[in-house]
Write a structure and sequence with these properties.
The chain folds into three domains: 12-101, Beta Barrel (OB fold (Dihydrolipoamide Acetyltransferase, E2P)), CATH 2.40.50.140; 135-271 and 413-537, BirA Bifunctional Protein, domain 2, CATH 3.30.930; 289-403, Gyrase A, domain 2, CATH 3.30.1360.30. The chain has 17 helices and 22 strands. The chain has helices at residues 57-62, 118-123, 125-128, 132-154, 195-203, 241-260, 273-280, 297-300, 306-309, 327-339, 365-371, 386-403, 445-450, 479-488, 493-506, 521-528, 559-564, and strands at residues 18-31, 34-40, 45-50, 68-77, 90-101, 158-159, 177-179, 187-189, 208-216, 228-237, 269-272, 294-295, 313-319, 346-351, 354-357, 378-384, 414-421, 423-426, 431-434, 456-464, 467-474, 514-520. A hairpin with a 2-residue loop joins strand 14 and strand 15. Helix 4 (132-154) crosses helix 6 (241-260), helix 4 (132-154) packs across helix 16 (521-528) and helix 7 (273-280) packs across helix 12 (386-403). The longest helix has 23 residues, at 132-154.
Length: 571
């Protein structure tokens, strides 16, 4: 039978029509001789009815959940309508029924209200993905991907592929290595990003490139990170930061309108890296609420509080109408601050003109007045090292916003974080590392030469609702500047030749000014579908411990395979 409709299309206008349907059995129930079957496909559910005198009644009795069947029948009006279903006013009076595939009792409920543990869902991912809720994530991912692609193609970008097996160039996260069978003791590396390849496309003269690139990083996982991920990789020649930012704003505006029917306001907000850290305690601030961090060192300098006296910095946040927090709740916030490297959490609150707090015994009425706290306000303070205090208050800011429902989940606030430091210094190793990557152009080459610690980068991140969803930069296109960058990073000529020799050679033959950006597709889909778990928007994800529950990977391999690759497993 060739089916005529999907399982969401039929309604009262189809009464009397003969139809052919296919799909999975959501459930089957026998009510006083009548057998009712809910038939499901990726579009919806249609109720089937099989009467006792039907020649296929015996077949219908055998049917269980997740059987795959096809039916021929007549659209009829239901006696007991279900207006919560799209097809809830009709049912199919079955005339023919065929079992295409029988099914064992599934190890989890294939429904949106399943109570299966995540471990079970990942082990039987193919069943988990039958659930409409999960299918919607991937269908939305498809729509988002196609929308992004359409803008880039319309703006003259070529979709080009880059290799998966490449060279290990360790200057970032840990590489996944692939041993070579033909070259004993040598390894390929899976790409952390197509960074060098896309720059080589610019050297080759393509001018505008993009791809939906698979990337791999062997690093610790979290709710918004996977060991393999997809990024929308973009590079263009003869452009500046404003050109790239304008392109991405057009991509996001089109995608949000087409997929969610949401109007995104452009141009996006812009903020320097320094301001983001000082005011929000993070380089990816959520702009849907305020709760700004302020400096209280000068204000408290005249008050003798032992905890503050030997501290270089004293930062704080005022939470309006937050004085209702209990001591137990504040203790939990204190634990959060310490977990995020803060020395301590101090608080002062005003309840109808009566002040209290953890430093109450050190303060008098005049001291409290200088704080300018309104009724029901609470001030949180974190003393100590500047970076640690800001990091702790950044985490506290997010927690308070969630506790006091300060976040409007239905709005999207984009932000460009610009004016990044070019380098960061590792005190233990006594050397510089690239803040982004070693191909990022400095804002001032002379600054890189004379004072690398304060050198700034032509770099920019795009942030959405507190998540970094992309990052990019204008690249170094001058071979002398690239050489200076490698020298500043402490790489010898031999190391540069070994790791990046082919790229350094390419810069000798006429390289156009160029730059780009990579968008994290998985994170964008995660935010647009309102899930906090990135595994929801990846078809076959890994666990937090980087394990594939379904395929049971990583796994051991035969000794023959190890011998072919010239590998031995250590004790």
């Amino acid at each position: 039978m060739k089916y005529t409709h999907n399982n969401y299309e039929l309604n009262m206008s189809n009464l009397g029509q003969e139809v052919y349907l296919k799909g999975w059995v959501q459930k089957s129930r026998n009510l006083g001789g009548l057998i009712f079957i809910d038939l499901r496909d990726r579009f919806g559910i249609t109720q089937l009815m099989v009467k006792p005198d039907n020649q296929f009644y015996g077949v219908a009795e055998k049917i269980r959940s997740e059987y795959v069947i096809e039916v021929k029948g007549i659209v009829s009006e239901r006696e007991s309508k279900n207006l919560n279903m799209q097809t809830g006013e009709i049912e199919i009076d079955v005339k023919e029924l065929t079992i295409l595939s029988a099914a064992e009792t599934p190890p989890m409920s294939v429904s949106d209200d399943t109570d299966a543990l995540e471990e079970t869902r990942l082990k039987y991912r193919y069943l988990d993905l039958r659930r409409p809720h999960m299918q919607n994530f991937l269908i939305q991912r498809h729509k988002i991907t196609q929308s992004i692609r359409s803008v880039l193609v319309s703006e003259g970008f070529y979709e080009l592929d880059t290799p998966i097996l490449g060279k290990s160039t360790p200057e970032g996260a840990r590489d996944y290595l692939v041993p070579s069978r033909l070259y004993a003791g040598h390894f390929y590396a899976l790409p952390q990003s197509p960074q060098i390849y896309k720059q080589l496309f610019m050297v080759a003269g393509f001018e505008k490139y993009f791809q939906m690139a698979k990337c791999f990083r062997d690093e610790d996982l979290r709710a918004d990170r996977q060991p393999e991920f997809t990024q929308v990789d973009i590079e263009a020649s003869f452009i500046d930061q404003e050109d790239i930012q304008g392109l991405i704003e057009r991509v996001m505006k089109h995608t949000f309108k087409q997929v969610l029917d949401v109007e995104v306001q452009t141009p996006f907000l812009k903020m320097s890296y320094q301001d983001a850290m000082e005011k929000y305690g993070t380089d990816k601030p959520d702009m849907r609420y305020e709760l700004l961090i302020n400096d209280y060192k000068a204000l408290f300098s005249k008050i003798d509080i032992p905890l503050f006296n030997d501290k270089s910095y004293l930062k704080g946040i005022v939470l309006n109408q937050g004085a209702s927090l209990t001591r137990k709740q504040i203790d939990k916030l204190s634990d959060l601050v310490k977990k995020n490297h803060g020395d301590a959490l101090v608080y002062v609150k005003n309840v109808e003109g009566v002040y209290s707090g953890s430093i109450h015994k050190f303060m008098n009425e005049a001291d409290y007045q200088t704080l300018n706290l309104k009724d029901q306000d609470i001030l949180f303070l974190v003393p100590g090292n500047n970076d640690q205090a800001l990091n702790a208050l950044g985490a506290l800011r997010v927690e308070l916003a969630h506790q006091f429902n300060l976040i409007d989940e239905n709005i999207y606030k984009f932000l460009w974080v610009t004016e990044w430091p070019l380098l960061e210094y590792d005190e233990e190793e006594k050397r510089f590392y690239a803040k982004h990557h070693p191909f990022t152009a400095p804002s001032d080459v002379n600054q890189l030469k004379t004072n690398p610690k304060d050198a700034m980068a032509k770099a920019y991140d795009i942030v959405l609702n507190g998540y970094e969803i992309g990052g990019g930069s204008i690249r170094i296109h001058n071979q002398d500047v690239q050489k200076l960058m490698f020298e500043t990073l402490g790489l010898s000529d031999e190391e540069v030749k070994h790791r990046f020799g082919f790229f350094v050679d390419a810069l000798k033959y006429g390289t156009p000014p160029h730059g780009g950006l990579a968008l994290g597709l998985d994170r964008i889909v995660m935010l647009m579908t309102h899930t906090s778990n990135i595994k929801d928007v990846i078809a076959f994800p890994k666990t937090q411990s980087a394990k594939d529950q379904m395929m049971q990977a990583p796994s051991d391999v035969d000794q023959v395979q190890l011998d072919e690759l010239h590998l031995k497993i250590g004790e």
